[in-house]
Amino acid sequence: MSRDARGSSRPDPGTGPGSDRGPGSGIGHGSDPGEGPGPGGAASGLDAVLRARLGGFALDVSLTAAPGEVLALLGPNGAGKSSALRVLAGLVPLTGGHVRLDSRDETTTAVEHRPIGMVFQDYLLFEHMSALDNVAFGPRCQGAAKAEARARAAELLDHMGLAEHARTRPRHLSGGQAQRVALARALAVRPRMLLLDEPMAALDASTRIDVRSRLRRLLEGFDGVTVLVTHDPLEAMVLADRVAVIESGRVVQEGVPAEVARRPRTAYVARLVGLNLFRGRGDGEAVVLDARDGDGGPTRVAVREPNEGPALVAFPPRAVALYPEHPHGSTRNVWRSTVDGIERFGDQVRVHLAGPPALVADITPAALADLGLAHGDTVWAGVKASEVECYPR
Amino acid sequence: MTAMRETGSRPALRTRGPVAVLAVAVLALTACGGTGSGGEADGELTVLAAASLTDVFTDIAADFEERHPGTRVTLNFAGSGELAQQIASGAPADVFAAADTATMEQVVEGEGLDADWAAEHGTHGLVFATNTLRIAVPPDNPAGIETFADLAADGVQVAVCAEQVPCGAATRTAMDASGVEVTPVTLEEDVRAVLTKVELGEVDAGLVYATDVDAARGRVEGLEFPGAEEAVNEYPIGVLAGSDDTGLAATWVDAVVDGTDVLSDAGFGTP
Amino acid sequence: MSAPADRRAGRRTRVRAGRTPWILVVPAVVGVLFLVLPFAGLLVRAPWSTMGARVSDPAVLSALWLSLSTASVATAVSLLFGVPLAWLLARTRFPGRRFVRALVTVPLVIPPVVGGVALLLVLGRNGLVGRYLDAWFGLTLPFTPAAVVIAQVFVAMPFLVISVEGALRGADRRYEEAAATLGASRATVFARVTLPMVLPGIAAGAALCWARALGEFGATITFAGNFPGTTQTMPLAVYIAMQRDPEAAIVLSLVLLLVSLAVLGTLRERWVHAR
Description:
The complex is a heterotrimer of chains A (393), B (271) and C (275). Chain A contains ten helices and 18 strands. Chain A is of the alpha+beta class and 393 residues long. The relative contact order of chain C is 0.13. Classes of the chains: A alpha+beta (393), B alpha/beta (271), C mainly alpha (275). The B-C interface holds B 1, 4-5, 7-9, 13-15, 17-19, 21-22, 25-26, 79, 81-82, 85, 157, 159, 162, 164-165, 184-189, 193, 196-197, 200-202 and C 38, 41-49, 117, 120-121, 124-126, 142-143, 221-222, 224-228, 230-232, 236, 239-247, 249-250, 253.
């Protein structure tokens, strides 16, 4: 359904915020188009190298994003992705690196002077102000007259479908409404970069889908850089044009969402996107896995195309078939294993196999019944070489 | 509301009650070193005395304890009015020495003096010392005060006691006698407070007792003035009705009455 | 027929579910009694028959007016200086910050009379600072209503500073960060975000400060003296009256008590309703 939201519900690109208004009145037109790519061909958009000490570890990431692009920072809790966002905002000082936005150096710019708009995890709307005044706050701080600031705020709220809530205090707004007010507030300062810190985390599951598709449409209409922090892979896939996976303060993988989902580079990403992932070394039409197993020799995984050198292999759990005995036929990867655990997984059953190689298999409840599997049973796992994704690491 | 009015209209309850209520707080603050330890044991004497008697009574008590081995004198000094309220609210004490007769009169009318002692020495207590007012000025006498009339001059800042306390009553009498109406800048709660203001040079002059000037010799100068003799303060002493040991209390009173040397050394007059 | 029975049953259930533990109730009741009984004593022993005449005495009214006005001015002054001080203590790091915080609480622990003497030594006619005020500007503070205000500020401001500092520490600083990302300068953040957030703490601190200033006695009588109409506030009038006329002291105490309760109650009401 997220694809739905992305494609079909956007009949007219003109619904993008501000696009039907005069120059300068729309959202995100933070800079004159003329000052985009600077002299010497420097790219417009975000170019940042962020180094900072954060409690237990060091943050060291470099991020780039083109105007209009949504970059998702995906990672487990405490990986430093929110910190990276705070460094971008100027809320945490850098110990090294730089922040360039549309080829202007903002490394040492104070928070209040950065051309950014930020949406915080629980929105942090000012409780003592109405929704309208929350949105008008930024423009007022930038020197707009009261009437002008309120007019801009009213326009934004109207665009967000919140016209009738302009006078409402934040605590009387629903989670989704509060998120939209927070977005409107961040956009009201006409930022060249929008920073979103877990914008869905405060919402309950039932409203998340709807809010996510709204956010998707909104971001498509925003012509600045968007950096989105999330720990939810689905959110990253739906909202982002590019994903940077951060673990322990470093970017461990970067790419378009489909690429990341298909070819994970770390166990964390593999788990997030639900793939079995192994590290190994290419050896013709097979990959020899790094993981040693106790008794036998090294495990080999047959792949589609010949390859050499360090490689990663990944395949989805549903590509794994289980057999009570060694199967005959075209399946080239067959391993004998013991059942380590069985759990429900959606309408499937997920079977954990001790290996080698240790992997998970998703089978139907009917198949489970046929196999009569229980914890500790011996089983044969088969994966077709055509199902195995192999890529250099 | 009605019930309270009825209560209030009974005169007997009216004087003692409020005193008791308010004095509890005062007692708690001022009686720590005094009556708390209880005067029940043999040879223990609790004396409540006006603050101006502090030095004198401390000397007399040391002498008294030496002459009567085994006795212990507990002294509690405060404003006479405060002490009178403590007595009214039942503070255990044997002897009361006030800085003026009016305050002693409050005690006489309330808890009363020991009947036997009073029959012998007087129902209003025994006057053992007198004190006269002096003009106290800072050593450099910035306003050049020489006479009582100078106190009434424009721009002269004078501190006196509030009329509700003995030294203030004496000040009133002195002003009436001399026909000079002084407008003070402050009406202090006791004579020590007046003295402090003079010592710090915050006022040009203050009206205090001769004994206070003596005690603060070097830090203030004292000026005698005509009319002061009209405002002589008499210090009465008496054995209280609530005393556990009236014999010992009477002995103490005698020692005080006999202590004329100590008293005159401190600047008191003796009757 | 069954409906009231159900309701009764329902009520019983609710009571059982919400029963308050006696181990809290008993000390709480004792605490309330301890606080309220002295007040009841004042009410019972008050000379009600002459109350009207005593209360309408111009001297009482002038002391009351002086008390209310000086306490209010003292609160305003405390707000003016105390809120920024609380902000510095809560939000900045500077060498000796702990020491400064300890200093701020000194007026809470020293006897007010000592505070009064200290003020005389500094701001008196011959004081460290006071002598220059006198020499250069012909300004003497003691024995003026200004001195009353100064004495009250000295003893009452710490209450405000501590309340506001606590509120500032308790406030979620991320709101201030959010304001900064929207382009607000530090001053704007303070005025438009921080202050409104800690307003309840400031109100509570101001109420405490006002109440403390209203009851101020020791520092006032020592530093400002006692003269009706100029420096004699209600507590001073109560104390002086105690010397000769305890009934008058009770009347004054009751008046002070009722007026302060009325003022604080009204403010609270307004505050609660405004929220």
